[in-house]
Design brief:
Helix content: over 70%
Radius of gyration: 15 Å
Number of strands: 0
Strand content: under 5%
Shape: globular
Largest sheet: none
Order of helices and strands: HHHHHH
Structural class: mainly alpha
Number of helices: 6
């Protein structure tokens, strides 16, 4: 049990650091909001979420460790992608939806149709 605490702290720290960097890197004011672009970016980001879920949830850890691993993996993959639109899409997505494998396009469109951001 004691061995898991430092690993959890490292994973959580990496996730928080990556999310902070994503918010700065992904703040694009003229983000395209057309259906084709949103669908393509949603599919790209969901592919990263699915890959992280397969990788992290299959490891012998508790559910909280798996979740931290998943967040860190997704953020790292988005950061390394080099795709500024994907970074902006990921940064704008609320945390409750960003790592949700089962989100719908209706929810995604609702997030990107808001003009307050």
């Amino acid at each position: 049990m004691r061995k898991n605490i430092p690993a959890f702290c490292v994973a959580l720290g990496l996730a928080v650091f990556a999310m902070g960097g994503q918010a700065r890197a992904g703040s694009v004011g003229d983000f395209p909001r057309d259906d084709a672009t949103l669908t393509a970016l949603n599919d790209q980001q969901l592919t990263l979420v699915h890959a992280a879920a397969r990788e992290c949830m299959s490891m012998p850890r508790g559910p909280k460790m798996g979740r931290a691993c998943m967040i860190a993996s997704v953020e790292q993959a988005v950061s390394l992608s080099g795709d500024e639109q994907l970074k902006a899409f990921n940064a704008r997505m609320p945390t409750s939806m960003r790592y949700n494998e089962y989100r719908t396009m209706i929810d995604v469109k609702r997030v990107f149709s808001r003009t307050d951001r």
